[in-house]
Amino acid sequence: MPRIAPLEPPYATDIAEQFDRIMRGAPPLVLFRVMAGNARTWEKFRAGSLLDRGPLSLREREIVIDRTCARTGCEYEWGVHVTTFAEAAHLTEEQVRVTVLGAATDACWSAAEQALIAAVDALHERATLDDAEFAGLSEHYEEAKIFEIILLCGFYRTVSYLANGLALPLEENAARFPRA
């Protein structure tokens, strides 16, 4: 059980509509059900406006999210994203594994993806990018994408804090962290 009880159906009409919009008809995640129980928290979370696709490709977006969640030890959100999006993002089994156990320099990544993962790692470790890391991103990504990368790292770090801090149980059908 999470530390804060999730909403149970039947949901209020407005909450049910919000869940349907986000989940596209699938049952709402425990994370969403817990947060929706507090109106201010739910509104602030949804106001983050990073639940849309944004300027990154699905593959780029998922690499950022998966790596951020892996670095924060958030198996809950990592598993949800890997299960839901890895195939559509054309992430191989090796690449999925490496988001948890590998390095930015692993050969399974393109040069652009290596710069992306290096940026995620730097933001996780130091909450900043040095000149070389920023130059590496700039070589492959336009400004709108760089903003999105940084915002996604922060947003999914917050999601990881929520999932980890509230001790959310892993979603039943979600992927699990690979073993070393």
TrEMBL record:
Q: Give the molecular function GO annotations.
A: peroxiredoxin activity
Every Carboxymuconolactone decarboxylase-like domain range: 39-120
InterPro entries found in the cross-reference section: AhpD-like (IPR029032), CMD-like (IPR003779)
According to its UniProt record, what is one Pfam family this protein matches?
Answer: CMD
Q: Which residues form a coiled coil?
A: none
Protein's UniProt name: Carboxymuconolactone decarboxylase
Give the organism the record lists. Answer: Bradyrhizobium icense
Q: What is the lineage of its organism?
A: Bacteria, Pseudomonadati, Pseudomonadota, Alphaproteobacteria, Hyphomicrobiales
